[in-house]
Each structure stands twice: as C-alpha cells, then as structure tokens.
Amino acid sequence: MVVLPRQAEATVLSQIPSPVPGQPITTEVVIIGAGPCGLFQVFELGLLGIGAHLVDSLAHPGGQCAELYPEKPIYDIPALPVCGAQELVDRLMKQIEPFHPSFHLGQEVIEFARQENGRFHVRTTLGTTFDAGTVVIAAGVGSFQPRRIGIDGSEAFEGTSLHYRVKNSSSLHGQDLVIFGGGDSALDWTLELLPKARSLTLVHRRPDYRAAPASVAKMQEHVAAGRMRQFEALPHSFIVDNGVLRGVHVKARDGATHALQADQLLVFFGLHPKLGAIAEWGLELEKKALKVDTEKFQTSLPGVFAVGDINTYPGKKKLILSGFHEAALAAFAIQHHLYPQKKQFLQYTTTSPIMHQRLGVPD
Ligand SMILES: Cc1cc2nc3c(=O)[nH]c(=O)nc-3n(C[C@H](O)[C@H](O)[C@H](O)COP(=O)(O)OP(=O)(O)OC[C@H]3O[C@@H](n4cnc5c(N)ncnc54)[C@H](O)[C@@H]3O)c2cc1C
User: Fold this and answer.
1) Which of 85, 89, 117, 230 is most solvent-facing, going by the fewest CB within 10 Å?
2) From CA 164, how far away is CA 174, in angstroms rounded?
3) What are 205-257's pLDDT values in tens digits?
4) How far apart are CA 339 and CA 89, in angstroms?
5) Is residue 303 within 8 Å of residue 121, measured between CB atoms?
6) Contact, 29 vs 52, CB < 8 A?
7) What percent of the chain has pLDDT over 70?
8) 143 CA to middle of ligand 1, Å?
9) How would you label 157-174 residue by residue, b for 16+ Cβ within 10 Å and e otherwise?
10) What is the pLDDT of residues 30-83, one digit of tens each?
C-alpha cells in the first residue's frame, strides 16, 4: 500500500503527488534507503513541513538494524541506555507516523538523472518513477541483495524455477521443491510449503541450523516421519532437460553427488549489501562512499544529499547518531534548495505551534 505524504505548506509540488499508474510520482523529496538514517530524515523534513517518499530494496524498513542484527542491543543512542535494534526501527517508525511518508519497499533504485529543469528522475526495479525536487541517498552500505546459488547459468532460471524470495507461494503448490539454506527463511518456508508441495527436500551445508530451534525441531520431526528429506550438502549443478529445470545435483561432504528431482529451487543464503547503480550516477565517491560537505551533507551534485553510512567527510564515523545529526542539517539544506526564498529560523519542538500542528500535538 502506498500512503501519500502529508501536504507541505505553501508548495504546489507537494500537492500533486501523482498516483496515476505509469506517471511519475511528483514529490519534494525521494529518500533512497529506509534504514535508521533514512527514517529519521523523514522526521527532520516533516518538522519543516516537507513530505517524502522512501524507497528500499528490502521488504521492510530498518536497514542493517532490521536485517543484520534485529535482536542485538544498542547502547549508544542518546537518552536510551539500551535499545534493541528492531526496537529502534519500531520507535523511528512511530516517530514519523505524523508525517505519513509513502514507502515503496522491495524495489531497488536503479535509475537516476538530473532533468533540465533541475528536478530529478528516479526509477526503481518495479518501475515506480519519481519526479523529485531533491534526492536524499541514505543507502547505507548498499542495497541488500540475495546471495546467489553459485552455479553457472543460474540467471536463466531466476524467477521461473529458481527463486531467492517467494513472491507467490501458491505457484509452488503441488510441485517438487528443493529448498537451500539453514536460517529462518529456509526453515519457515520449509514448514509453510511442506503440506502443499508434492515433495520437499531441504539442503543445508552443515548439521547446525541458524534458524529458531523450535522450527528446526519441527522440521526434524517431519524428516523422521518420512514426510520430507534433508541433505547436508552444497549445490553443484543443474539437471536440465530441453532447457527446462528438472532438478539439482548436490555435493555432500564426503564428495558424493546426489541428484535431487525438483520443479522449483528456493535459495535462502541470506543477503549481502551492494552499492550497485549508485556508484554510476556520476556523484563524487571516495572509497565507495559519497563525498559530502558538513554544512548541508550535499553530494557533488546540488540537490542530491547523502546521510548515514553511505557518505564520507573528514572525521566521518559510521554511527547511527552521526546519521541522525546529518539528517537534521540536510533537512534545512533541502528546504533551502526547494524554497530558496523562504526565511529559515530554528524552532524548538517544545514550543513551536507549527511544529505541534505538524506533529499532531494539541497545544
Ligand atoms: C552487527 C552490527 C552492530 C551495530 N551496532 C551499532 C551500534 O551499537 N551503534 C551504532 O551507532 N551503529 C551500529 N551499527 C552500525 C549501524 O547499523 C549503521 O551505522 C546504520 O544502520 C546506518 O544506517 P543507514 O540508514 O545509513 O544505512 P542502512 O542501515 O545500511 O540502511 C540503508 C538501506 O538502504 C537500502 N538501499 C541501499 N541502496 C538502495 C537502492 N539503490 N535502492 C533501494 N534501497 C537501497 C538498503 O536496502 C538498506 O535498507 C552496527 C552495525 C552492525 C552490522
């Protein structure tokens, strides 16, 4: 679901976010990356009455916090002596609620161009396009991509008989499935699809699983009861007949190769971040990070800002709190870029009636 941003004051641009299919969405700001810094950027912009659309290649907000260490405690968020990483994301989501940002999740930004009129064209892998006044790149260590199966020629089967995420589980019903992986995704889908599949084999490279112990125990019960098979092995090669995938050979630790019949392969080897297309947008880079100034956190292209782990400047520290500071200053610079005539002054959230109105706080 796409929720349109709240209308910003005194701006024609934010009043015409176009939800028409095939038409670009017109917005003041597109934020690339919904990690903690992208989320806090929404808040800082919202306080200034500026609406934003967020895009993330992950299916959920939270960036590294949600993807890499959701259950770990963080101890260096100001005024929160300890805060779980997912809890921090949940708190940020709560904090930005008053500004109703639009989330475009599960899609990577792959196209970016400055238009002749000074605005920006942005397009995602799902074809969502934006006509944005400014762009904030909050892409962290990059877009999280699935680790591939590692068999030559695998691209030919991606999306048809080889999957790194399940888009439509009913299309897998009644089929011979081989699932690779030992984490929660592999085990959750094993348990979910087992009653509906014609056959199911789970392949993991070692005997220990990273998934929740209860899921592992359940899976082992099914194996013991003969309802599914489990292999300790690595993917080796595809079994193909006339261009159609019929199965996969896997190689066990003892070197033996086993042929597993399959209509569909599901691979859950986790995700790894990749800077991807951002590196090709002509923005000045230093060691795979975007160079910014420390007044506006603007990149080498005016109107394009970068906050959080993706940016670099003298003394940069890749900490969440640094990203929060960067987002606050970038918001003022973005306001100035969009509305150069507008007088800027600092207001406190404690006392500002307009900020209370934006936050939905009764005065
Ligand atoms: C194990 C671990 C523990 C940590 N502990 C701490 C700690 O205690 N304190 C602390 O301050 N920091 C800690 N960090 C670092 C902290 O998590 C990062 O500094 C923080 O996540 C950076 O936030 P971000 O929003 O800049 O980027 P990220 O969290 O990396 O989020 C960026 C988002 O952008 C998305 N993205 C990237 N490119 C694209 C694209 N082209 N299109 C669409 N989406 C895209 C990604 O999918 C991702 O969701 C820790 C990191 C790790 C790995």
Assistant:
1) 117
2) 19
3) 999 999 999 999 999 999 999 999 999 999 999 999 999 999 999 999 899 99
4) 30
5) no
6) yes
7) 94
8) 10
9) beeebbbbebeeeeebee
10) 999 999 999 999 999 999 999 999 999 998 999 999 988 888 999 999 999 999
CA distance 182 to 137: 33
Tell me which residue has tokens 């959080």.
308
Helix (H, G, I), strand (E, B) or coil at 54: strand
CA distance 68 to 362: 38
The pLDDT assigned to 21 comes to 65
Residues with CB under 6 A from ligand 1: 32-38, 55-58, 63-65, 68-69, 74, 76, 108-109, 138-144, 276-278, 308-310, 318-321, 323
How many angstroms separate the CA atoms of 231 and 88, rounded?
Answer: 38
Note whether 359 and 159 are within 8 A (CB).
Answer: no
> Using CB atoms within 10 A of its CB, is residue 362 exposed (0-12), middle (13-18) or buried (19+)?
exposed
- Kindly give, in sequence order, each residue whose CB lies less than 8 Å from that of residue 345, ignoring residues fewer than 6 positions away: none
**How many Å apart are CA 107 and CA 81, to the nearest integer?**
34
Strands 264-267 and 176-180: parallel
At position 179, the amino acid (one-letter code) is I
